[in-house]
Structure formats: structure tokens, C-alpha cells
Amino acid sequence: MLEASRSPVETARPNAHLARMLTHDSSTEMTDKAMPNDPFGPGDDFVATFQIEDTSVRGRIARLGDGVLDPILKRHDYPRWAAHLLGEAVTLAVLVSASLKFDGKVMVQAQGEGPVPLMVAEARSDGGVRGYLRLDKAKWDNLERINKGQRPHVPQAIGRGVMALLLQPNDPNQAPWQSMVPIEGATIAQCAQLWFSQSEQAPTRVRLAIAEISEPGGTKRWRSGGAIIQQVAGDDARGSTDDSWDNARHLFDTIEDIELVDPDVSSGTLLFRLFHETGVRLEPPRALTDKCTCSDGKLLTTLRQMDKGEIRALANEDGAITADCQFCGRLYRFPVEQI
User: Fold this and answer.
1) Cα distance between residue 338 and residue 315, in whole Å
2) Handedness of CA 148, 216, 2, 71 (dihedral sign)
3) pTM
């Protein structure tokens, strides 16, 4: 966990230019240097894809901070370790969204019988992000007593259940795609790797990290970092891709959590440290925002599909229906006659 006080950082530039890291001789000094012509800069709240040069290894990297993760986690005042869990799910959804070939959204959803019976994280192709988890307070308090304040692993928090990834196109003529895996890994990253191995059958490594930055006066700010690399299967033209994958995987597994979230180490610099010997081709980043999709129109459409008698039974004494969005907390109020 980062404890040093930090000043606000710049937001990511969505029109950052395409950059290509040069090939350098490996040296200790080189890994301590910042990446030249870093298109990401020092900012947060973006996701980008990259390709390790002259290999069949592709990847995605993301940073979430003041503009996305911090408001999502503070909005509902979650317990610390519950916030960590949702932060990892949101970061994973963002990473997966960078691979979408259509306009739409990615949803990471976990359901179980534990202290967190439901968790949903959503990232959309327009850069909008939102997340929410439902907490059983009695079960959560009991878990914290059992763990004596230590971080619970995912099966403890979610309980017996499943994790699903849903890809939902905006085009109603395109069918959504969903795949589920049992919750077996100790972390969200391990659950995601199981999902990728079973659903895409592509060797994949996932790293996710969450941190709180302490500021004067005791204020905490949430931030996260995440990265994914995948092996592209060999073919007659490429030949075997196993050697390049093994080398990339070995380097990727040396990433420290602090490197993924430290405001003083940009994502470009981190990739430069890892793969400067081969080089990495970076694509322009996509800017991300904390943005919900709820609206008066959507809620009215849902309410108008309900039975009129049920609507009247739900109305307050003043003859109005009230509802709040579980994601953003916005409160809606509609007179019954409007429905």
C-alpha cells in the first residue's frame, strides 16, 4: 500500500501518438530509466494495448485513479478489503474491454453464497466504467473476525459460486456472449486466468494491484493498475511461439504490485523496464471515465412493464415511486400517474 503523499496527476491523453520503443542492450541502468517518447505519460484513467516486437505476444495495460476508481469505491463506503475486491474486478473489466472489436461493454460478474453475494464491474467501448458489490454485513463482520483483519481470499469473500464474463454489443442484432468459471483462484487475477484458459484456450497471465494513497489529514485515495499478456498460437508462417511466450511470461511475472500502481512509475516506463531488449509497440490509449448508464427513460421503461397493481402497492404515501441506482447511487422519483 502506498503511504507517501502524492499530488494530483494528469489525465491520460486519448490522442497520444503511436510509439515504438527502440531495442536496447540489457543493463541494470536501463531498467531504471523512463521510457523515451512515452505516449502514456504520468497520467491515470486509461487502458491501452501493446505488442512485444518480433514475438507473438500481445498485451493490455491500464491505470485507474482519481477520475475512475476513487469515486467508484468511495461512493458506497465499502470496507477496505471489499473495496480491494471490487477494484480488481473493475480493473479486469477495463483490461478485457480493450480487446473489444465492436461497440459495447464487458461485464465481470461474481455470484456466490458468501459475504459478497454479488459483484458487478462494467467497462464500455466509449470509456465509461462503473462497478458495484452487494455486501452481507453480518457475514462480512464474521469473516473479518476470523481473518483478524487480514485480506480474505476470493472464495472466502464470494463463497461457493461462479465468475462470469459477458460481452454485450450495442447492436441488438449481435448476440451477447458469456462464459462462466467456478470461483477457484485465491485472487481475481487467478480466477481470470482460469477463465482465459478455459474460454479462449490461450495462455494468459494477469496481474492486478490496488493501493490507497495517504494524504495529509488522513484522506485516502484509491488507485489501481493491471496488465495482461497472451500468447498468439503458432502457425505455418510463424512457426512455434513457445520460446517467445516463455521469455515474455518470465519477465511479466517479475512485476511488483508497487510498479503497477506507483504514480511515479508510468505504464510506459514499466513496459520499457520489462521488454526494452526486444521492444514494445504501444497503441494509443483510450481515456476512461466514471460514468453510469442509468437514466430516467430506462427506469421508466422498466417500471411501465410492471403490473399496475404492483406499481400502486410500491408507491409511497405521496403517490410516488422512488428508486436508486445501485451503481452510482442516483435517486429517482416518479409520480404513479407518470408511470
Assistant:
1) 12
2) positive
3) 0.85
Element (H, E) at 324: strand 320-324
Inter-residue long-range contacts of 75-83, CB under 8 Å, 24+ positions, other chains counted: 75/328, 75/329, 76/132, 76/133, 76/329, 78/133, 78/135, 79/135, 79/140, 79/144, 80/212, 81/144, 81/151, 81/152, 81/157, 82/115, 82/116, 82/133, 82/135, 82/140, 82/157, 83/210, 83/222
> Hey, what domains does the chain have and what are their CATH numbers?
19-290 (3.55.30.10), 296-338 (no CATH)
* Total length of the chain: 339
Nearest to 23, CA basis, from 300, 279, 222, 240:
279
* Structure confidence by residue, pLDDT tens digits, 252-308: 999 999 999 998 899 999 999 999 888 999 899 999 999 999 999 888 888 888 888
Q: Kindly indicate the confidence band of residue 39, based on its pLDDT and cuts at 50, 70 and 90.
A: low
Higher-pLDDT residue of 12, 307: 307
